[in-house]
Amino acid sequence: MGGMGPETGWTGWTGWTGWTGWTGWTGWTGWTGWSGGPGGGSDAPGLITTKNGIAGPWVQPGVPPVARPQNNTDNLSQLNTELRMAQYEFEMFSRLNFAFNASSGKASLYHLETKNATATTPPTGKYQPLVEMTRPTEANFLDQLTYLNTYSALRTDRGGEIVSQTGLPIPYWSSIPYMSPERTPYTMELLLTAMRLAQYSVMKFKYTLACRRPNEFSAQVQPIIPTPLHGTLPSGHATEAFITATVLSRLLQEIGGPVYSTVEWPTQLMRLASRIAINRTVAGVHFPVDSAAGAALGTTLGDYLVKRCKAKTVKYNAVNFEGTGFGGDFIWTDMVGFNSANKIVQDFSGPASAYWSAQSETLKGSEQSAILTWLWEKALSEWT
């Protein structure tokens, strides 16, 4: 899972030291290093002597520049990626809260709906459910160990994938639609914004639910990668993978046309998300139920983020995942399907009805984020 210590080893991604941390994989080495000005300070002696040599006597300007508009998304294009990401994150996390009910064992993520804010009056609002989770019992986890034993037979076949997916798996996502940091930089910003939403949310659930890892149940699990220090459920990789598949498929489908409107694109993206999730079970660091919980969280947050990017009043699914109701293996098609327009939809019927359900809530268009809408439109324009 991105940037959270040993789960991925994204040492630069953690704490965002590395949004100048795109340096390794975008080739933007010099530009992200411009945070302090040309040369990052190393050219200061030369700049001093150059200024002394060419500036001449001070002349007070008589006309100031035109003032920039305040609180206007036109200003976003003047910022670098790191500074824009700070704006996206505030838009997301300022509308979230978390709670835990000790008597029921239920952990809950909430969306804050606000209204009536003015320059002098604070907003009023209410919290609406977004995701609720209850962890499996230790006996539930024990029953799932047989799947880890079976999946371990795939380690030789999938070892290369597993190791490379401990880092940011952008090459895997870019192998389906034609993406690159140079060609689609705003799409990359959108996906990384989604991943940050996934990371913070899943880490709070992991900490709160405090579920033990597979190698705490059996000496024969023997993971092939370092076991992360945080709890096993939900799977961070599954959460990130399914939020990425959801957001990216929605973006492509909004473009439409004879290519991106087909069901093949979301199908391939969901298959990739599932494979990334299952690889963590193959590696010995996750149970199948962890992947199911991650898929529930990731698809819900993905749908939520896309709808927060739109200036429309829309419905969203507030989901409840009951870990004790999950049995068997993780099969993504039990939880996700496609509607008549080939769009991804969550499926709460059939086998999945034993462990997750939903209620409908409303996001008001008047309270949506202009900054997130700007990002969505910028990403969309890269594909048209």
How much of the residues is beta strand, in percent?
5-15%
Mean pLDDT: 89
Shape category: globular
**Helix content estimate:** 40-55%
Number of strand segments: 7
Could you say how many structural domains there are in total? Answer: 1
How far is it from the N-terminal to the C-terminal residue, by CA?
Answer: 31 Å
Radius of gyration: 23 Å
Q: What about the largest sheet? A: 5 strands, mixed
Sketch the topology as an H/E string, one letter per element: HHHHEEEHHHHHHHHEEEEH
Q: Structural class of the helices, strands and pairings?
A: alpha+beta
Low-confidence runs (pLDDT<50, min 5 residues)?
A: 2-36
User: Please, how many helices?
Assistant: 13
Strand order in space, largest sheet: 1-2-3-4-7
Strand-helix topology:
Blueprint: H1 23-26, H2 29-32, H3 44-54, H4 81-93, E1 96-101, E2 106-115, E3 124-134, H5 138-151, H6 155-164, H7 170-174, H8 185-209, H9 236-255, H10 257-260, H11 264-283, H12 288-308, E4 314-322, E5 336-338, E6 344-346, E7 356-363, H13 370-381
Parallel strand pairs: 3-4
Antiparallel strand pairs: 1-2, 2-3, 4-7, 5-6
Helix pairs in contact: 4-8, 6-11, 8-9, 8-12, 8-13, 9-11, 9-12, 11-12
